[in-house]
Amino acid sequence: MPSSKLVMITLDGCRYDTAVEELGYLEHLTEKGLAARYPVMSELPSNSRPLYEVLLTGTSPCENGIVTNLSVRLSEKESIFHLARGRGLTTAAAAYHWVSELYNRAPFVFHEDRVQNDERKAIQHGMFYFEDQYPDSHLFLDAHYLLKTYQPDFLYVHSMNIDDTGHKFTSDSKEYRQSVDKADLILAEILPVWVKAGYQIVVTADHGMDEYGHHGGTREGVRRVPLYTISDQVEARVNDEDVPQLMIAPLICRLLGIAPSVDMKPLEFPGLRE
């Protein structure tokens, strides 16, 4: 029986072409038939908070109202966290504090909301950071602590160093590539542990980055992002056709074995096994 537990990882600001060139470990898994890779076309605007909501609710900004990074309020849509908790599953997140603001409490109260454990909340177990330079190495160990301690059915991991570096040095810089490469090194160390523990893995990004250290608009570099899956439910192959970002949330629901929300689009995803 395939596992239905899942870790979803968002590499904030990681563009597709750089991922293919620099995520050597994930590309190794793809090359050896152990993972699938897809290009994803993000929704607009290609900014962080709106696309967190897209990824986690499967709804577009014009539907959910989270249209800018200044939309500081709880989501009004059912997220994957809500759907999983409603099915009696355990949820957890190691993520940027905007994720807590969308699904647990807004605004974020720094001295109270850094670590959260509340079975009544959408994200039942959370460790949230609020500095963009918070090290990815620490973030993934936060996630590992949550995984070991609470054995969540759905664990969301959101790293910020690639985006932070892109804004400082642009997507054309050696620093940006090094940041993507460092994330790959961390994934190479931790993913085998999580897979051995029985977890499916989904790795994606919210948006990309351009040569000006910017994102938000329509250009390919800021909209096309990677999607990697490690799951017995998905054929391990390289796919060339863009997947709409709105398909990711219903895909996660499918892999978790839970029903999607009424607002999610019907799942159309190449390579799914019946």
How would you explain this protein's 3D organization?
This is Nucleotide pyrophosphatase. InterPro entries: Alkaline_phosphatase_core_sf, Phosphodiest/P_Trfase. Pfam families: Phosphodiest (PF01663). The protein has 274 residues and is of the alpha/beta class. It has one domain: Alkaline Phosphatase, subunit A (3-Layer(aba) Sandwich), CATH 3.40.720.10. It is 39% helix and 17% strand. The protein contains twelve helices and nine strands. It has helices spanning 16-22, 24-31, 48-57, 61-64, 80-86, 97-103, 110-113, 136-150, 161-169, 174-196, 220-223, 248-256, and strands spanning 6-11, 36-41, 91-96, 115-117, 125-129, 154-159, 200-204, 224-230, 243-244. The chain has a nine-stranded mixed beta sheet with strand order 4-5-3-6-1-7-8-2-9, with helices on both faces. A hairpin with a 7-residue loop joins strand 4 (115-117) and strand 5. Helix 8 (136-150) runs parallel beside helix 10 (174-196) and helix 9 packs antiparallel against helix 10. The protein is globular, with a radius of gyration of 17 Å.
